[in-house]
Amino acid sequence: MFKEINPNIKTGDISKDELLELIKQDKIDTLVLGFCDMQGRLMGKRITGDFILENDIDEGTHFCNYLLGTNFEMDTNDGFEYMNWDKGYGDYLASPDWDTLKIVPWFEKTAMVFCDVYTVDGSESIAIAPRTILKEQIKKAENYGLSPHLASELEFYLFNDSFENIDKNGYEHIEAAGHLNEDYNLLQGTKNEPIYQEIRSQMHHMGIVIESSKGEAYKGQHEINLKYAHALKAADQHLMFKHGMKEICIQNDKAVTFMAKPYAEWTGSSGHIHLSMMEKGTQSNAFYAGDNAENPMSDTMQHFLAGIVKYTKDFALMYAPYVNSYKRFAPNSWAPVSIAWSRDNRSAGYRVVGYGNALRFESRISGADMNPYLAYSALIGAGLYGIEHKIPLPAELKGNAYEQDSVDRIPSSLHEAILQWKNSDVVKEVLGEDVAQHYLHAAQSEQNDYDSFVTTWERSRYFEQS
């Protein structure tokens, strides 16, 4: 049963003063305080309206710091410097960024605000928190007189079954909500249009702009494109879209996955990122050299893109953070394997598109399983490093990148990406030692969890024959 929008309640962005007034009028009774964990999930609390009226919630709410040191199953793995039993797993503070305050239209009387993470006394931001990492890279860009703008394109699979039922069935014999490959075919969307229309409508009422949705390259696969925005807002709306889509699916006994590669024979789900740089405080694209230039790409764009290309392997953990992420990279699969740039060429890892003030590049490296704050941070950080060191842009790749053996390749596994990250001085310089070590340990823990698990594939292959 789809949720109807209450015509008597304001939708989209609201101010803190409006929130307080809506609570007094009993039009809002719940405020969700959410922050992003390492895996790109929203964590937090629901605060009652009565509590908000009785208390100043500007400082936010406390939470156990282990939430920034877990794996997907919420295990508290040993070895994290910031959170461990020796330090007692103390509190952090989730402090509201009131510029992100929105009405949540798919819930009754509910608003949500995104939070930044601070020490328990609120005096110092937590360096390893994903939103903090991105804000630091944005600050660096502004020191260059630049303002990063990004947009995410997210692919996913929809299922006509609930998350609970899929889990009870052991994630076996899962059938996506479709039976044909209908990429761009309008019938692909038509078959599930009621839920997709609901998602587009609810996101519109929340103030998250969806430009388009379409069928993708496998049965039941779909893509939704979000409108470009300033880097922080773009990452926020990426996270809110994924979280909100899951909530809407839960309300309608459906499920969705942004997993990079659910099955070997299924097309992987990408998370393409479009990036341009505006001159700070203007709408002028710093990537565009001008109408009369021989090369439309400015020196800024060339050095920025050169830094990203050169250090793609170093930052691979932020584009492809999990074991499964690397199953998506395969020749002729619409997911790139080549670290190269080209104009409007989908076989390359980086695709230069657009004209004039819309000139930008698309990173095709990341999967839909990325954490947007981390992937955006890696792109901006590596790009600024390219500007700072005036790294020359390599020659444009021509032709089919899948067939060119001389082109450098994306790491083939999480193991390889971990080694690249661990041995990279650039990662440490761009992100800082604490961030580099924290996310290295998270990746090593993820790899160790996988390496210790025996799969059905292994039993079927080796049980009798070995």
| Helix/strand/pairing category | alpha+beta
CATH topology of the largest domain: Creatine Kinase, Chain A, domain 2
- CATH class of the largest domain reads Alpha Beta
Which percent range fits the helix content? 25-40%
Question: Shape from CA axes?
Answer: globular
Low-confidence stretches: none
What name goes with the CATH superfamily of the largest domain?
A: Glutamine synthetase/guanido kinase, catalytic domain
Strand content: 15-25%
Total tally of structural domains = 2
- Determine the number of helices (DSSP H or I, runs of at least 4 residues): 14
Notable characteristics:
single chain; 466 residues; alpha+beta; Ubiquitin-like (UB roll); Creatine Kinase, Chain A, domain 2; 2 domains; nine-stranded mixed β-sheet; six-stranded mixed β-sheet; 14 helices; 32% helix; globular
Describe this protein's structure.
With 466 residues, the protein is an alpha+beta fold. The protein has 2 domains: 16-126, Ubiquitin-like (UB roll); 137-457, Creatine Kinase, Chain A, domain 2 (2-Layer Sandwich), CATH 3.30.590.10. The protein is built from 14 helices and 15 strands. Strands 7, 8, 9, 10, 11, 12, 13, 14 and 15 form a 9-stranded mixed sheet that branches. Helix 8 (299-310) packs across helix 10 (372-388), helix 11 packs antiparallel against helix 13 and helix 12 (425-431) packs across helix 13 (433-451). It is globular and about 65 Å long.
